[in-house]
Amino acid sequence: MGQRMTEINRIDTLRRIVDGKRSLPGGVLPVLHEIQDACGHIPDEAVPLISAAFNLSRAEVHGVISFYHWFREHPAGRHTVRLCRAEACQARGAEALAAHAKAVLGCDFHETSGDGGITLEPVYCLGQCACGPALMVDDERLEVRVTAESFNDLVEGLREVAP
After folding, report:
1. How many whole angstroms separate alpha carbon 153 and alpha carbon 63?
2. DSSP 35-82
């Protein structure tokens, strides 16, 4: 995800991204993806820029952002844990793992733990259907056959190592 930026740099970045795709048909989603990649979330000041560029109301832009769970309106934690919610993983214990993860982290899906360390996100298939339940850490590390104990170990390791 993007680095922290000064407010002036962030506004310049937002304008550059929006201006670069304003003539693209259906460009709102690509703009939102690029903004989130650059900033780590969709900052409030992006909404009026997108609204003006694509001739949409601010409510319409906000509606797109809130409809897609992938987009964040607030920065994520230092780490993001995506827990598979697909049927195959559910059949292998993902529901119990999700309840355990929420209890351990003290947050629900689309939220961040109180210490700001871990954001918990659902994902609907990591392609590890025979090895579930599965999760992914920071879009880089895949874990399979995750148990409550191995989840606890994973969280402990993430909290010990800052990115």
Report:
1. 38
2. HHHHHSS--TTHHHHHHHHTT--HHHHHHHHHHSTT--SS---SEEEE
Residue 19 falls in which region: left (phi positive, over 0), alpha (psi -120 to 50) or beta: alpha
3-class secondary structure, 155: helix
Task: Mention every residue, 6+ apart, whose C-beta is less than 8 A from residue 15.
Answer: 49
Could you report the per-residue pLDDT of 39-66, keeping only the tens digit for each?
Answer: 989 999 999 999 999 999 999 999 999 9
The contacts of residue 123 (CB under 8 Å, 6+ apart) are 82, 83, 84, 85, 136
Report CA-CA distances (Å) from 110 to 61, 73, 132, 145. 19, 10, 21, 23
pLDDT 10s digits, 10-40: 889 999 999 999 999 999 999 999 999 999 8
- The pLDDT of residue 147: 97
pTM of the entire predicted model: 0.75
Here the tokens at position 156 are 């402990």
Judged by DSSP in three states, 135 sits in strand
Nearest to 81 by CA among 10, 15, 155, 9: 155
